Each structure stands twice: as structure tokens, then as C-alpha cells.
């Protein structure tokens, strides 16, 4: 019942970040493979209330949307070994958010330069209409390629600086900051021809890159969407003891109806009632006709919370 269930797909790099976090912690988990684009029956909207991005972590009837809440939750439930070595939690959370925001579209631009002709039209249509809001076909991205290479190189320059003489960003142990920076590079090194290393100046980072690959994925065992859905249906949400049940630092009260929407892409609002909130996490309750009572957890950063 308390199994970690990850709804994910193989080529999702944000999923790879979580899979590698599970590897870092040496955890066993249940793996639900979802399609690379909707529909994703028995997950969205049933368990997520309409939030559509990947990955999703499920523990019983608790659903965690976005890696910026999934990693801190893994840390809360399984603190050793830490994702935040040497007191790095604040910096790691900030760096992960900024890095991924800054790198995502320029990295996709480099990716499409190399492999854009192989991306199926229905995937391009979905990403334009329901996820990124831009056309990521090779032709549409080509005019911005040079600018995007500069942007990625500038980011990587300070990553090289930060890693100079160190095994990982915060010392000898890997952590969440490494995983966030690494996953955007993984997107490119996994899918592009080897010349991407020279284009972006990646050679000095390959030792660090390989040390993160070596963390592995922990111990996944397959599970079907139906089985995961049955787990949610048969479970009750866990009591929230790590957040303020009186409500939200911004003034919302527990029990009040709210709507939570990503502020960057895939802006589908999720409706529910506030259970508890803090500066870094918000938990809402929603009831699905089949799955029953669920708690949905979101990070505060990167989401707009509105009373409705
Ligand atoms: N901020 C989100 C970003 C997640 C994200 O954009 N994931 C990509 C896959 S790597 C995605 O959802 N793509 C569209 C989709 O699969 O529906 C997080 O950290 O979880």
C-alpha cells in the first residue's frame, strides 16, 4: 500500500531525473509505463485531476505532481542517503528550478536540430497545442538554433566551473542539484549524435555525467495502470502531518476551494479543496467518481494557486 509508484515513460527526461533519484536512494518502486502523449487513461484526469505532465508519483491515494515535489517527498519519506548533501537543500531547490526553466526550450531546440525529422506529426501537434504552446518541428526551431546553442553553452560554462575539482556539485556525494542539471544534458547525449559534445563543450563534464548514470534506477517492478488505479481506489490519503493544517501562508484556509495551474506550460487547472499548505508545498483534496478520495501534492514554485 505504501509502495512508491511512478507513472512515467522511457524517453521522458524529467522521469529519468526521478528514476535516478530512486537509484541514488537505492529504493524499490513500482513502474507504470504511460504513453508519451495523451490519452493516459486511469491517470489523467482520474488521479491527477487533469494535470498532464510526466512523471507522476503515487503512494496509495496520494498523488505527487511535478519533480519539484516528488524529490523533496522522497527525501522526507526516505532521508538516507540524502538528495541534499552538505546542507544543500535550499540551493539545490533553487538551482534545479532555475536550471530546468532556462534550459528546457533551448535543449529541445538542439535536439530537434539533430533528430527533428524523426518526430511524428501527432507528437508535434500535441506538444504545440497542449504542452509547450510552440511548434517544435525542425523547420520551426531552425531560425533560433544559433541563439539556443549560445544559451546552452553559457549555462554549461558555469556548470563546468562549479564542478571543477569536485565529484558532484556539493562535494563528494551526488544530490538533487546534480540530477536537475544532468537530466537536461541527458536529453541531448542520449538522443543526439556524439558531435553534440563538441558543439556544447560537454567533454569536461563526462566524468560527472557517467557518475550520475552509475547511480542506476533502484529496483523497479512493473505494474499496470489498472493495478495502480486499484491501489488508489483501495487506499485513503495519508494524514498530512508535515504541513500547517490551518491553511496557507498566503491566507487561504483549509477546506476552501482552490485551483492550481502550472505557470509555464500545460496550463490545465486542477480543482480541489485545500487540505494544508506551506511555502513549498500545497495539498488539495479531490474526489474522483471511481478512485474515491485523493490528495494531490504540488510544489508552490512554478504553480499559481487561486481561491475559486
Ligand atoms: N516542472 C515539471 C516538468 C515536467 C515535464 O515537462 N515533463 C515532460 C516530459 S520530460 C512532459 O510532461 N511532457 C509532456 C507530457 O509528457 O505530457 C516537473 O519538474 O515535473
Automatic annotation (TrEMBL):
Pfam families: GST_C_2, GST_N_3. Coiled coil: none annotated. It comes from the Bacteria. SUPFAM superfamilies: GST C-terminal domain-like (SSF47616), Thioredoxin-like (SSF52833). Residues 2-82 form the GST N-terminal domain. Signal peptide: none annotated. Gene3D superfamilies: 3.40.30.110. This is Glutathione S-transferase family protein.
Amino acid at each position: 500500500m505504501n509502495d512508491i509508484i511512478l507513472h512515467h515513460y522511457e524517453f521522458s527526461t524529467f522521469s529519468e531525473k526521478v528514476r535516478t533519484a530512486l537509484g541514488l536512494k537505492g529504493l524499490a518502486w513500482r513502474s507504470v509505463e504511460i504513453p508519451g502523449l495523451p490519452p493516459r487513461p486511469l491517470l489523467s484526469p482520474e488521479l491527477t485531476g487533469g494535470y498532464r505532465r510526466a512523471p507522476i508519483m503515487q503512494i496509495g491515494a496520494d498523488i505527487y505532481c511535478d519533480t519539484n515535489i516528488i524529490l523533496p517527498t522522497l527525501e522526507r519519506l526516505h532521508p538516507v542517503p540524502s538528495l541534499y548533501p552538505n546542507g544543500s537543500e535550499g540551493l539545490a531547490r533553487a538551482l534545479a528550478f532555475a536550471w530546468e526553466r532556462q534550459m528546457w526550450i533551448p535543449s529541445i531546440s538542439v535536439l530537434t536540430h539533430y533528430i527533428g525529422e524523426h518526430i511524428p506529426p501527432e507528437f508535434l501537434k500535441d506538444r504545440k497545442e497542449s504542452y509547450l504552446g510552440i511548434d517544435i518541428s525542425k523547420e520551426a526551431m531552425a531560425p533560433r538554433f544559433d541563439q539556443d546553442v549560445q544559451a546552452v553553452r553559457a549555462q554549461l560554462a558555469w556548470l563546468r566551473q562549479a564542478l571543477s575539482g569536485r565529484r558532484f556539485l556539493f562535494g563528494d556525494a551526488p544530490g538533487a542539484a546534480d540530477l536537475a542539471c544532468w537530466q537536461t544534458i541527458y536529453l541531448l547525449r542520449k538522443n543526439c549524435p556524439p558531435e553534440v559534445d563538441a558543439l556544447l563543450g560537454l567533454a569536461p563534464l563526462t566524468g560527472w555525467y557517467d557518475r550520475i548514470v552509475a547511480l542506476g534506477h533502484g529496483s523497479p517492478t512493473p505494474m499496470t495502470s489498472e493495478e495502480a488505479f486499484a491501489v488508489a481506489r483501495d487506499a485513503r490519503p495519508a494524514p498530512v502531518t508535515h504541513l500547517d493544517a490551518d491553511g496557507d501562508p498566503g491566507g487561504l484556509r483549509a477546506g476552501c476551494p482552490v485551483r492550481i495551474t502550472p505557470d509555464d506550460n500545460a496550463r490545465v487547472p486542477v480543482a480541489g479543496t485545500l487540505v494544508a499548505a506551506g511555502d513549498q508545498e500545497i495539498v488539495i483534496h479531490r474526489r474522483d467518481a471511481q478512485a474515491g478520495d485523493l490528495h494531490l501534492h504540488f510544489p508552490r514554485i512554478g504553480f499559481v494557486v487561486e481561491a475559486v
